[in-house]
Amino acid sequence: MGDFAAFLGQEFDEALSYAALRKAESVGRPIGSREWLADVETQTGLSLIPKPRGPAPKPTIKL
Q1: Where are the domains positioned within the chain?
Q2: Could you read off the pLDDT of 42-59 as tens digits, one per residue?
Q3: What are phi and psi of 47, to 5 degrees?
């Protein structure tokens, strides 16, 4: 991390910094990279990465 005190003293745009957190609050899902979420899914057995929207595709029947 380097100089942590300097990091804490940096200016930041609060609205922009917290936008992802606010969105996650309304959706109810954790935020993080796709890789991190996949790792946490593996460790916990929970489904954390959103699935595609809409009904599941019907299985195709091969004749």
Answers
A1: 4-44
A2: 999 999 988 888 998 888
A3: -90, 110
